[in-house]
What we know:
Blueprint: E1 3-5, H1 7-20, E2 25-33, E3 37-45, E4 52-57, E5 60-65, H2 69-72, E6 75-81, E7 87-92, E8 98-99, E9 106-107
Amino acid sequence: MSIQLTDRAAEHVSKMLSSHGSGIGLRLATKKSGCSGFAYVVDYAEQVDTDDHVFESYGVKIVVNHQSLPMLDGMTIDFVKENMLNEGFEFINPNVKQSCGCGESFSV
């Protein structure tokens, strides 16, 4: 089982954690949402709970709850910046079977 960041994503998360002033890493989960079934939830990880799995990539911890792990296993997270106004995480998830037209939700 693995979840990894690209070097660009790790650099961005490290900067965001430093600006935030607290947190041990990136918390990644899924929730039921949208027209395809699930959406990604990204937040600061303030702690590791008993049902969490922790991965490390380029020195950044990625914390995932047990329930979300099957949908996220094998995923790579990149950080892309297309121009001055358009930047964000790109989720490269081998488990996705279909995503909605707007790209906000997916099914596995």
